[in-house]
Each structure stands twice: as structure tokens, then as C-alpha cells.
Amino acid sequence: MDALDRLAGIGTDLLHRVDAALVAGGAPAGDPLWPLLRQVGALPGDALEFGLKLTPEPLRAAAAQLRADADRFARRRDRLAADLGTAGTWEGSGAEAFAARWRSLAGHLGDGGDPATVTGRLRATASYADALADWSEGLRTELAEAVARVAGSAEAVTIRGNQVDGPPPAAVLAAAARIGVRVLQPVADAFGAARDLERRWSPDLAELRYAEPEAAPAGTVPLITRVPL
Question: What is the pLDDT, as a whole number, of residue 73?
């Protein structure tokens, strides 16, 4: 349980009141809350619920599994290379075709250093998952700090003290807007960072297709295959 989990109860209660006031009366014209609402596409209470659902731990577990899979494929590649050495004792068209296919498969698997290989893609995906986990933890921390600030603010007292039926008074709407800005600003910043992450990693996460080795032109490879006994 982190700080955001501990503040979930008080934060949810306050921000649901804020949401209700904003839905009923809206923020003042020209308030800084309006561009944040458009950017985030959610009210403050909804943004808090989103943050509470972020779970970095499964992302880190997935990253560890992806790296283990990359290591497994790298070991398979080493075995392919050893088999290729055995195939080198063959002679003829069968040996050439076998060696070409094995070289192609070994290159496709890679050793983890090139993102344009299976092992490289797996390691890149693992790094992306770790980056998303860091992003999730960062947003949860920022939301916790925002909730802690607004929970004891004068604006929170104004929101909780509102007992008027009908449209909220102007003071309540102004208080709700100020709380909304404090909560939605870190969310908007985090969304921008998420887009940066996507741009940074998308080239290394694209689909990787296996390319068949080119066939040797007819007549360039002996038609007889000799295998030593």
C-alpha cells in the first residue's frame, strides 16, 4: 500500500463532491481548469480512480518474464549455431539449403543486442514495460501529493461546507475549479509523458517478420548431397 492507497478514502469523497459541483454549475469562464479538462478528458474524481487502478507490479513481473524469454531464445540461437557447424561437414545442395536456413533462423533470433531480432524485440518490450511501471509509480506519487494538498485546503472546507440545494454558489464553483486544477495538472503532465514514451519505444516494438533466405539460383549448387559417415 502506497501513499495514494492511504489517501484513497478522503480523496475519493472530496473529489466526488468537486465533480458534482462542476457538473452542476461548471467552472468559472476562462478558468485554467477548462483546458485541463479537455486535455485529460476526465473530471478530478475520475482521474483519481484511474490513478488508483494503476498497478506497476504486474508490469515489472511481465518485464522479468520477457527477459527470461529473451535469454531462452538466445540459448536456442547458440544451439542453432552449433548445429550449423555440424552442417558444415555436409556437401552439396542439401547442405547449402540447410546452412542457409539455419543462418537465417539464427540471425532472426539474434543475441539481444539488435532490436530487429526476436531477442532484441523481447528485451525492448521488457524495457518498455519497466518504463510504464515507472510512469505508473510516478503518476501515483504525484496524485498522492495533490490529494494531500487539497484535502486540507481552504477550498476543501468550502466544498464540504456547501449545504445549498440547487446550483452551487459561485464560491463553491471557484473552490472546485481550484481543486480540479491541482489534481488534473499532474495527470495532464503524465499523459504527455506517456505519449513521449510511446514515441520513444514504438520503433523497437513494431511487428517483426521472419524473412525466408533467398534461394540459390538454379545450377549454382551441386545437385548431389554428401554426408560423411
Answer: 84
| Tens digits of residue pLDDT in 98-109 | 777 777 777 788
Cα 208–chain centre separation: 19
If one counts every other C-beta atom within 10 angstroms of the C-beta of residue 92, the result is 14
Residue 91 pairs with which residues in a beta bridge? Answer: 226
Structure-block grid coordinates of residue 30: 476562462
Distance (Å, whole) CA 44 – CA 176: 10
pTM of the model: 0.81
Task: Sketch the domain layout of the chain as residue ranges.
Answer: 58-120
Angstrom distance (rounded) from CA 129 to CA 107 = 25
**How many CB atoms within 10 Å of residue 120?**
20
Residue 29: name the closest of 185, 158, 177, 181 by CA: 177
**End-to-end Cα distance, the chain:** 66
Specify whether the CB–CB gap between 25 and 167 falls below 8 A. Answer: yes
Contact 179, 32 (CB under 8 A): no
What DSSP designation does 220 have? S
User: For residues 5 and 54, what is the distance between their CA atoms, to the nearest angstrom?
Assistant: 11
C-alpha angle with apex 143: 147 to 24, nearest 5 degrees? 60
CA dihedral 144, 147, 152, 156 (to 10 degrees): -170
CB 193 within 8 A of CB 45: no
Given a contact cutoff of 8 angstroms between Cβ atoms, the answer to whether 162 and 21 are in contact is yes
